[in-house]
Amino acid sequence: EPLPWDRLFEALRSFGHDVPAMPWQRWCALLAEQLEQGSTNALAPLADLLGAPQDRHMPRFGMDNAMPARQRAGLAVPDMGLPYLHRMLDHLTQAGLLPVPLRQPEEEVR
Question: Which among 51, 84, 92, 108 has the fewest CB atoms less than 10 Å away?
Answer without folding.
Answer: 108
